[in-house]
Every structure is written in C-alpha cells, then in structure tokens.
Amino acid sequence: MIFTMSRCSTPYKTFEPLASMEDLTYRHHVKKVKLPESGYTIAYTDEGNGEKTIVFIHGLGSYLQAWIKNVDELKSHYRCISIDLPGYGKSSKEPHSGQMTFYAEILRELINELKLQRVSLAGHSMGGQISITTALLYPELVENLILVDPAGFEPFTKGQKQWFRNVMTFDGVRLTTAEAIQNNLATNFYRLPKDASFMITDRLAMRSASDFEGYCYAVVQSVNGMVDNPVIDYLDDISQPTLILFGENDNLIPNRFLNPGRTESIAIDGAKKIKNSKLVMVAKCGHFMMFEHPETFNKEVSTFLK
User: Which domains does the chain show, CATH number per domain?
Assistant: First the structure.
C-alpha cells in the first residue's frame, strides 16, 4: 500500500509503510553483531579500508543513513563504520536506560568485538555527547574526536532539564503528526536539501513498523540520558585531538525556547574548554552540517586525520 500526503510542502509525495524497521532501505550493506556482555544486536555498515578507522554515531531520532554523504567520500582513505544505536534503525529494540554512559558501554563493546583498537569517533548532535562520554570513560579506545553540532556544550539549569523530560514523552513521539515530522526535519537544516527527503519518508513509513514503539521508547530515554549525563563540566578533561564543526544557523543549539542566542557563542565557549581542538563554523548551514555541507565536512575531516 502506498500512502499519499496531500498537504505536504516537502518535495516527497508518497511513502510505503514498513512492516518492520528492518525493511528500511540503506545505501550500504548492513552487517550485524551481537554484543556478548549487553546482549544488544548492533546494525552497522563497514565501508573502505585504511590505517585509521572512523566510527560514525548518529543523533537523537536518527540512524546511520545520516552519514551516507560522508562515508561515500571518506571510505576511499579510511575504514568507515556507521552504527545504529540500540533502539534505532535496524539495531535491536530491547528497552534500555538511554544514558550516555550506557551508549559509551555499547561503543566499548563494539570496538572490542570488532577488534578495532583505537578509533576516531564522529558524533552528530546526541552522538557528539556520546562520543565525548566514551572518550572520557575509555580514552585508550579513542584516538580523536570529530564532533558535529554536538550536544553537551550548552548549559542547562535543573528546571530546564525537567522541561526536557516533561516535553519529550512516549506518546508525543509515537503520535507525532506527518506535518510535525516534516517541520522537525526541516528545522535541522538551513535550507532542506532535496536529497534529504528520504529522512522524512523513512520517519513517516516507520510509524507502522512492528518495532516502532521500541524506537519511540529509545528516543525518550535518550533525551533523559542527555540531561542526566551532562558533559559540559568535563570538556577540559578531554585529552584527544578534537575537530568541532557547527552550522552557523543551527536552529537547535542553543535551544531556541530555553536559551535563545547565537550558535557561535556556544560553539566557541565549548571549544575553548577542549585543550587540543579546532572549531570550524560553517556559513548558511543548520544542525545537520555533515549532510548539508558534506564537501566541507569531508575536507576538514581528511585534513584533521592527516
């Protein structure tokens, strides 16, 4: 059955509901590994080869497909592993805490299970906060950090943290309307690229999936995890070389409801705390910097890793 959205302003017109999130179409071949300690099954893609390995970690509500424009280019020189976090994409949907420390444990297990040794962690948004947490807890596994519009640089009061918990609910995620899904995705960009429409159709299609509720639960738990495990007070403990990339027109950082202001000020303050870091601000670019300006991301990453 094909559903047609008649009131959509985005470029897409139709989508096919999914029976399971396993039916999502991914550009690259998907592999799976069951982690022996936690028991979670992690879906990942493994492209290219080289002396250095980059592990790509998506953001809240996203999936490994967010990195396709980067993997396609960087796989010529590096081994590029993109993962679906537990509860997301094609990874298993067992309930979990959503804590940043939980995700760091998952990465530790994955790195060890795949025998990757020291890696570069590339994290977008929530994935950036997860990458920071992993680098702090397991510095022996992380050679350097690549943070894209990372969560974790913005300070929140106790009351603001509770606001996040109150706003992000299971039913709120599960019952998000088609119009809101479109608007939420569009807000991630300075100007929504036409080739990003698959993110919208995938999000619409997965609402019918048998494992969709597991995804909704993971999203809610992840929000709780971000506010429960802040990293802003530990940024000066990061020892790894760090590349930080922000879109100058990021609509999500800082939070426009709680801390309206300029993205650049948050980015500069965070970068100053990380001793060996380089900050790149990208003009006419939103929160999905690596997808909206992949040529800049890929070039900066290649230069950084060399």
Answer: 18-305 (3.40.50.1820)
Amino acid at 42: I
Q: 81 near 56, Cβ under 8 Å?
A: yes
- To the nearest 10°, report the CA torsion of 175, 177, 180, 181: 80
What distance in Å separates the CA atoms of residue 181 and residue 6, rounded to the nearest whole number? 15
| Separation of alpha carbons 270 and 273, rounded Å | 5
**Quick one: tokens of 139?**
């510095």
Taking only the tens place, the pLDDT of each residue in 20-72 is: 999 999 999 999 999 999 999 999 999 999 999 999 999 999 999 999 999 99
- Using a 10 angstrom Cβ sphere, with 0-12 exposed, 13-18 middle and 19 or more buried, the burial of residue 188 is buried
The pTM of the whole model exceeds 0.85:
yes
Cα distance between residue 306 and residue 290, in whole Å: 19
Q: Are 230 and 152 in contact (CB under 8 A)?
A: yes
Q: What is the pLDDT of residues 114-135, one digit of tens each?
A: 999 899 999 999 999 999 999 9
Phi/psi of residue 18, nearest 5 degrees: -100, 140
